[in-house]
Amino acid sequence: MSALSTSRKAPEHARLTPLLRLLILTQLAFNIGFFAVLPFLSEHLGQAVGMAGWLVGFVLGLRTFSQQGLFVVGGALADRYGIRPVVLAGCALRIAGFAWLGYATRTWAVIGAVLLIGFAAALFSPAVESEVARQAVVHEQATGTSRTRVLALFTVAGQAGAFVGPLLGALLLSVDFRTVCLAGAGIFVLVLAGHAWLLPQHIPGRERVQLKGGVRLLLRNRRFLALCCAYGAYLLAYNQLYLALPAEVERATGSQAPLAWLFALSSLLVVTAQLPVTRWVGERLELRRSMAAGLLLIAAGFALVALVRPVGWTGTAGLLPAAGFVVLLTLGQMLVAPVARAWVPDLAEDGRLGLYTGALSSVSGLIVLIGSSATGTLLDTGLPAAVPWLVLAAVPAAAIALLPRRT
User: Fold this and answer.
1) pLDDT tens digits, residue range 246-300?
2) CA–CA separation, 180 vs 30, rounded Å?
3) 46: part of which helix (H) or strand (E)?
4) d(CA 361, CA 228)
5) What CATH number matches the domain at 12-197, 1.10.630.10, 3.30.420.10, 3.40.50.11030, 1.20.1250.20?
6) CA–CA gap between residue 255 and residue 376 (Å, rounded)
7) d(CA 302, CA 323)
8) What's the burial of 99, exposed, middle or buried (CB within 10 Å: 0-12/13-18/19+)?
9) Which top CATH class is 213-407?
10) In 3D, which of 219, 158, 155 has the Cα closest to residue 352?
11) Domain ranges within the chain, ordered by starting residue
């Protein structure tokens, strides 16, 4: 048996380079630390700090803006200075932000801590994501293994962190919220120390470029902007887990308690099925068709609820369409998310992968911000029950036409 055939039978993670393993474990640690704190933030702001509901929403929106909106800045800085200083600076800011949040009792202090937490992610996340994408391409060229498999493993690591983080946070919340924040900061202390020791000063093949001129070239790249719009449609659909789905669960059961089980179902599906699904699809479909299939699955999830909604099922039976929606949406996510990241290196200008990776999040995040307001209005207009879900189904279906034609 040849060495190549032996390597193909080895587990996916066993064939990765040390740098890729470090970056994938980084995503796991990032999400454990972040999601240990985030799910409990709104209740802390409302109960312990005493903020009004509108102010809690405003603070949470600021966090999202300072993170997603500034991803493009973090990506550009990674292209200019390399990923090591940007990642280390982001980790240091996240530690300071979590520690500050744990002791913040006034509105201005909470806002400052939340902005710092968001900006920290805007530094380290696009740096790590862009380097994972670049290394996935290098790995593909060296081994023949599809880059989407590496990026799928990256997605699994992130989802596992998002699953473990809230469990850790809930356990520590029995002490107090400050303990949760300090534990999150402690995780990032470990990440900072590990990267200061293990992350190379210079990564072979990564050349630093000037900041000037990068955005102008990006705005002229119609194929990349088309991918951003299609990815934004996916994120808008995914955001309905937090907007349309809770309303449907409340209608069916009179409570939002089943939401926790539906979210757990989504996380479990990603952790257990992401790699097999990516492997199966990668052997049969190229990037555009794979992403189109994912968007169709997401559209089918909304259409399923629209089809059954007029019947008016309640109780356990009423949860079945919601569960079907979550399954189809998650399956679509498994196809769309890794493929979109895998596609960016083919569309980015040389040396500006960080900028383009950050722009993918920033542009799509802006689409979600605008689209979520429209969705909230749609759900509150008193239209027939199936209409909002049919409109939402049309969004990912229409996005297929936006996907770049050439790969």
Assistant:
1) 888 888 888 767 877 888 888 889 888 888 988 888 778 888 999 999 999 999 9
2) 15
3) none
4) 8
5) 1.20.1250.20
6) 20
7) 11
8) buried
9) mainly alpha
10) 219
11) 12-197, 213-407
